[in-house]
Design brief:
Jelly Rolls; Arc Repressor Mutant, subunit A; 2 domains; six-stranded antiparallel beta sheet; 12 helices; 11 strands
Length: 305
């Protein structure tokens, strides 16, 4: 098992983008890892199928997606969390649609939890068998939108006071396990899982929309082009990228416009055209709404730096 943990750690350490990684052992068989990843390529994992290791992932910010062995893909946004055993992700990959992710990874050895639980859990129903049956039975992955109580615990784990950090995290991890044991899974909001081919289609649509920002395509046009229901298209896009199609593409347009204003001598009207606006006034209004200054003022401010 230690070798498999080392494989996973090495994969994360080899991440090509900027990273901050800290792992803390809280109890025998229970560890917590804080992750901050930005700007790298998708990570591919390969390790032994460890059916006795429960993995809990919580998204603090950004967005992250898992491509599981089953061919299913699931995406977590801020406040979302997932639970599965490490046989489900033995051959898997993760990607960050928005280019950044900050989150918490908790690993629990279910066998150790059952045989040698932390003293505070003695006499409770929090055992390895119980957690497995509740969240992981049948090689399943349970992915949920976080409740307020769960989000508070995860946030507390991340923001533990420096002087009492380890002791505080030990208490909070037990609180988390107790809260999880009381959750009625059937009543929680489950995140949708998609097949790989569905995700590939949405990414293809995303690339088409962002590669040439001067062109505009309606949802109805895209739905007909790719033979997909418009509502399904909107829902899947938001699940994967975290925002609506309109908001996501607007962000791309504004960021591209800002770069053109700084790096070229194009007129405001020419910049507007290149990012999909046939009206300079509409572009200027949208730019001001996004950056809180007009394009001309934005260019002037950055030329003075």
């Amino acid at each position: 098992m230690k070798q498999e943990y080392q494989k996973i750690a090495a994969t994360i350490q080899n991440y090509s983008g900027e990273k901050q990684i800290e792992t803390v052992k809280l109890y025998p068989g229970i560890s917590i890892t804080f992750l901050s990843l930005t700007g790298g390529e998708p990570l591919a994992f390969s390790h032994e199928p460890l059916a006795h290791i429960l993995e809990i992932n919580y998204c603090l910010s950004g967005r992250i997606g898992w491509h599981m062995d089953s061919g299913n893909q699931i995406y977590l946004g801020p406040g979302d969390f997932s639970l599965h055993t490490m046989d489900v992700c033995a051959q898997s990959s993760i990607a960050m649609p928005g280019g950044a992710y900050q989150g918490i990874l908790i690993c629990v050895d279910l066998e150790i939890l059952s045989k040698h639980p932390p003293e505070a859990l003695l006499g409770s129903n929090v055992t390895g068998e119980f957690l497995y049956e509740k969240f992981c039975k049948g090689n399943s992955c349970t992915a949920l939108a976080g409740s307020e109580s769960v989000q508070q615990i995860f946030s507390a784990l991340y923001q533990a006071p420096e002087g009492i950090r380890l002791a505080y995290q030990r208490v909070k991890i037990l609180e988390l396990l107790l809260i999880l044991s009381t959750i009625e899974v059937s009543r929680e909001k489950h995140l949708t899982q998609y097949r790989s081919e569905q995700v590939a289609l949405i990414r293809k649509i995303h690339d088409q929309l962002t590669q040439d920002l001067s062109k505009r395509s309606s949802i109805e046009y895209l739905a007909k082009q790719y033979l997909i229901n418009p509502t399904t298209l909107k829902n899947m896009f938001k699940s994967i990228y975290g925002t609506s199609i309109a908001a996501h593409i607007r962000e791309h347009r504004m960021e591209a416009a800002a770069k053109l204003l700084i790096s070229t001598d194009l007129s405001i009207a020419e910049v507007a055209s290149k990012v999909g606006y046939d009206s300079q006034s509409r572009f200027s209004a949208a730019f001001k709404n996004y950056f809180h200054v007009l394009p001309k003022e934005y260019r002037r401010q950055h030329m003075e730096l």
